[in-house]
Amino acid sequence: MLLKQQTIQFSSHSTLYDLIVPKENILRKINDLIDFSFIYDELLNKYCTTNGRMAESPVRMFKYLLLKTIYTISDVDVVERSQYDMSFKYFLDMNPEDDVINPSSLTKFRKLRLKDTDLLNLLINKTVTIAIEKGIIRSKSIIVDATHTLSRSNPFLAIDVLRERSKLLRKTIYTFDDQFKERMPQKNTDNDLEKELVYCKELEKRIENEPSISSIPAVKEKLNLLKETVEDTQENLTLSKDTDAKIGHKSAESSFFGYKTHLAMTEERIITAAVVTSGEKGDGPELPKLIEISQENGIDVDTIIGDAAYSGKENLKITSEQNIKVVAKLNPSITQGNRKDADKFDYNKDADRFVCPAGHLAIKKARGGSKNIGTNQVDTYYFDVEKCKSCPLKNGCYKEGSKTKTYSVSIKSELHQDQIFFQETEYYKEKAKHRYKIEAKNSELKNVYGYDKAISYGITNMQMQGAIAIFTVNLKRILKLM
């Protein structure tokens, strides 16, 4: 049960916060910056207001998740730290003497309360609104790009994730006691997930039996992360394949199994829109959504800054209709003329190849015709026929008995002539200098907030992870610019 109105509790000990939590503390700044009651309003219909025992405030539960992202710690550690860290208690709107939740409540909150909510757009909209109100966003340009995130359940990486966690735990222990190596269990050298789970459990047991080591905060954090990974792997062992994740390509030679997050960001480095897709999706087709969401969030867009993936014919047509300039270098392979299925085969700028509707990357390409003589040159992309033969989407795409499957595109179209001229202007060259900013933002999301790997399974959970990570980076950026 949840009360229809939030209640404010007073304590004679609350004045301690003014003495202990300084004004420059990041959590105090965030609390002062934003009114989190919008979370309560958004999730109220997820609770019963008449029956059941009293539920924890959804605002507080959301703040627990935000603390997890800010400090990159486990459910167990964020709750434990909230017992003694006064800045955490202040941020959670708790009285100093209040008790904390059970860590398992966070799992239930994610699964039951945040399910079927558009948390991604809700949180981005809130931070963009604040940035506009504070006069932080002044530019009318948005920089676009996509960043990839590895699936948590990649069947080829499950054992590697466990080994990475256990290795991190061992290294942390050795910084405090390098003689502890002699008491470590024997490592599993086989490529066997079950044996690796046994090793990790034995490692946990050995460390927990040594209070002098396991009580060290840094060790405890790494130990809890390993425990979470072991439990999660056991729970999903029979469902190790993430059905929402797909194979995408970072280059013609390298691929990944997971998701893509397509981002739009202002020149002030405030993210204004995000769309999460499976890994095989192209970058270019998501541009219209990024523009639309940015505009709905209050951004007056007059320029798009991106790489060659965004200079496709359809994107140029859509932006031209809205008088939006596209600062993206043309790639000949993106021009597809009047092809009816142009929206089905996506161009992967990293691999410099096209991807078919089934997600298969072209294996090679060849160029025909003479440059600047007669008709346009044509790039022909060749696909693996063996995959085509067994593809569920082969009807209308692959002709039975064919020895090859190709996809050809014209090098130039009339629509691109204006873009070619625009690329030579000073405005284009000046705006293009801002594109590096989104690469830095992608790096921050991955290296600081753990966005390089999904923490749970499925695209819904990936959207939730993205929502809280982007909310965090936007809030910190706003505070920096104020």
**Mean pLDDT, nearest integer?**
86
Name the CATH class of the largest domain: Alpha Beta
Distance between the termini: 39 Å
Number of alpha- plus pi-helical segments: 19
CATH architecture of the largest domain: 2-Layer Sandwich
What structural class should be given to the helix and strand makeup? alpha+beta
Question: What is the H-and-E element order?
Answer: HHHHHHHHEHHHHEEEHEHEEEEEHEHHHH
Low-confidence stretches: none
Count of discrete structural domains: 4
Radius of gyration: 26 Å
**And the CATH topology of the largest domain?**
Nucleotidyltransferase, domain 5
Determine the CATH superfamily of the largest domain: Ribonuclease H-like superfamily/Ribonuclease H
Strand content: 5-15%
Shape: globular
Features:
Nucleotidyltransferase, domain 5; 4 domains; IS1182_transpos; Transposase_InsH_N; IS5/IS1182 family transposase
Describe the model.
- The model has no long low-confidence stretch (mean pLDDT 86).
- The chain is 43% helix and 13% strand.
- The strands form 3 sheets. Strands 1, 2, 3, 4, 5 and 6 form a 6-stranded mixed sheet that branches. The chain has a 3-stranded antiparallel sheet with strand order 9-10-11.
- It has 4 domains: 14-117, no CATH class; 123-150 and 261-329 and 434-481, 2-Layer Sandwich (Nucleotidyltransferase, domain 5), CATH 3.30.420; 156-239; 336-412, no CATH class.
- Helix 4 (58-71) crosses helix 7.
- A hairpin with a 5-residue loop joins strand 2 and strand 3 (255-266).
- The chain is of the alpha+beta class.
